[in-house]
Amino acid sequence: MHRETWIFGYGSLIWRPAFRFEEMAPGYITGWARRFWQGSTDHRGVPGAPGRVVTLIPEPGARCWGMAYRIAPADLDEVLRALDHREQGGYARHDVPLYLADGRAEGAAWTATVYLATPGNSDYLGEAPLAEIAAQVLASRGPSGSNVEYVLRLAEALEAMSADDEHVTELARLVRGRAQEQGTSARPDRPAERRGAHRPRPSEGSPGAELSVEDGGLSAAP
Ligand code: SIN
User: Fold this and answer.
1) In the annotation, is 59 catalytic?
2) pTM of the predicted protein model
3) What pLDDT score does 4 carry?
């Protein structure tokens, strides 16, 4: 039996993990599709004016690419505590079979913990036309920054791993186009996190990096 502990990120956890891990590896899970159907009132929106962030929807045959992180046993409790806090806006932990791009996790004998938000949670927004989702994204901002940043960072991160996701790509295209029409910036708020910033000990965040509420509540960004 495989006993390593992996966390699979498919949203902000791809581009801003902000927790200690021993290894990161691109991978995918099957039977789940990534959708901007979860409302965010604590990171990319506020109560009464939620932003839109991703969750996973069951879809037979679907493949969702993301980033898998191997966590040292000694760090596990602390990492899960921080992630439970960060993902408290409607997400719960689930175990899913994990496949790594390098083929190590063949045969679904490996599992990963994933945070997913199901329709039962009070922030769930559900399906909407992409044009409506884009308009909501452009209008939303929360304690972790703009909703636009969330969408564009995710699209860029997936593109960097050559992972196809039509829903995300199309939404990013709409958001960029609308922002251009409105003469507003569709640039993410801040520079991308350097990948080395969350390599194993002793570092916990890159020196001088702006940590947001999304970073597990380590310090709140304005
Ligand atoms: C994830 O990234 O895996 C969960 C959703 C999010 O925090 O954006």
Assistant:
1) no
2) 0.85
3) 82
